[in-house]
Amino acid sequence: MRVLALSSGTSVDAIDVALADLDDAEGVVRMRMVAHTERTWPAPLRGRILAALPPAATDLGEVCRLDTEIGQSFGDAGAWAIEAWGAVDLVVSHGQTVHHWVEQGTPDGGGGVSDDAGSARGTLQLGSAAWIAARTGRPVIHDLRSADIAAGGQGAPLVSLLDALWLGDRPTAALNIGGIANITLVGDGPVRTGDTGPGNCLLDDAVAAGTGRRFDADGALAAAGRVDPQALAVLLADPYYARPLPKSTGRETFDGGYVTAALGAAGVAVPSGNDLFATLTELTARTIAEAIIRDGARTERVVVSGGGVRNATLMAGLRSRLPGVVTSDALGLAAEAKEAYLFALLGYLSARGLPGTAPGAGRRRATGARSAVVLGSLTPPAPAPCPPGRDPVHTLVLEEG
Ligand SMILES: Nc1ncnc2c1ncn2[C@@H]1O[C@H](COP(=O)(O)OP(=O)(O)O)[C@@H](O)[C@H]1O
Ligand SMILES: [Mg+2]
User: Which residues bind ATP (predicted)?
Assistant: First the structure.
């Protein structure tokens, strides 16, 4: 089955496009990675997506417009790929995450928070599948995360099955550094997965605000700055980092105002210029490394993907703390396209009626879900399990029950 995957991560940097040929027999899934690229967002639309994210207030009219326009842009990216690479059987769209609802918990009176803190309650990816189907002419699997949340899981990260099948032969941490960073620990007992916290997002925001550039190319700005130990200590004290896996987070927590608010609340000054970039880069490297060491003490290698692999300062911070750091390219999966190929795999599994997450500890899935669920929704809907209709419907007969 030829599957075209479309996705955009929390960085909102581009629409990732990947074409894969998949089949399976006797439990062996084969994914041939045919082509991948990224398509740029229309600049005004990207600006409006970023402007709608927290800490900004937004309104439902804008959410509706974004849903349509993101769907149209994804549809255009899909149509472009079909024109360039040939026909496909199925399109899979992750859409653009605009909110990932994780319970913060209520104070329990004893200085802690209620037990429901950290559970995921909902997640919203925009990009109307109807527009994608209209522009590609193919059925679209979308809304890949909600079913896992409805089964009690985090709904993110969704990469556990791919990592377990691909890297599970020895103790390995798979690490993806997008706007948010996530890990999957495989090859050493039950598969565990979760978001470690910010990947590039806080750094991207600070660099955009401070320099007007979109990101710290190659980590050069951070390399020219000095880590501010006091500011770093305040940021490291965020309770998110101490929470056990599985866990997930997003830009509604680590938003554009997060650093100023956290440091302001502690009465610590925001480091200036390159020192801020150095401090935020260090925050990402430390929180990732500490999460891997805490939960994957026997980890032999760390296989890194996502745009963060191109930040040399960040990668040096990881290499100084973790064993066997390699990029996913070295093992045959392009670092910038891993997530898009992941969604191609998940879409294929869903089309085959197979669950998309790895088994975790006990009876749980790696995401924390209570059961193995088939991920996603299909547009247009598959025929219901009844004899196929042959004639167009022209009359409705209402009968009393
Ligand atoms: N040359 C580079 N140097 C440093 N960072 C980079 C470079 N290229 C991309 N990035 C970082 O990677 C991010 C995009 O990574 P990506 O994996 O697409 O994240 P997401 O999944 O959140 O969209 C950019 O926002 C930027 O922070
Ligand atoms: Mg991206």
Answer: 9-16
Residue 114 lies in a domain: yes
Domain assignment of residue 343, given as a range: 2-379
Per the domain annotation, does 64 fall within a domain? Answer: yes
Domain of 294, CATH number, reads 3.30.420.40
Q: pLDDT tens for residues 214-236?
A: 999 999 999 999 999 999 999 99
Tokens 């399990």: give the residue: 385
| Structure tokens that stand for 90 in this block | 């199925």
Q: Where are the beta strands (DSSP E) in 103-198?
A: 120-126, 140-142, 172-177, 180-186, 192-198
Query: Could you identify the residue written with the tokens 């399976």?
Result: 24
Q: Which of 6, 10, 11, 204 to mutate to test the pocket of ligand 1 (most atoms within 8 A of CB)?
A: 11
**Choice from 277, 311, 339, 343 to test ligand 1 binding pocket (greatest atom count within 8 A of CB):** 311
In a domain, 172, yes or no: yes
Asked if residue 38 has its Cβ within 6 Å of ligand 1, the reply is no
Q: Assess if residue 400 is contained within a domain.
A: no
